[in-house]
Amino acid sequence: MWVVSPVTWSASWPRDPGHRDAIDTLLLMAVAEERWGESRRAVRLLDHVEGLVGVLPRPYERIRRRCLGDIRRAPMA
Description:
- By secondary structure, the protein is mainly alpha-helical.
- The chain has helices at residues 17-35, 39-53, 58-73.
- The radius of gyration is 13 Å and the shape is elongated.
């Protein structure tokens, strides 16, 4: 199964297709974690992507902000 990335690649993103596929996988995992209510995991995955490529595309930056808000509002365990 091939996933077509919704991301517009910037110059800072890797040119190697395998590397881009791995980044796409991390982004898809982050979206799934957010959907499942796992905000901390989603933020961690998005932080990894940002660390690898230097910047998150805007849609994923919005997901991270939303997850961080969820984390702040969550009751302390």
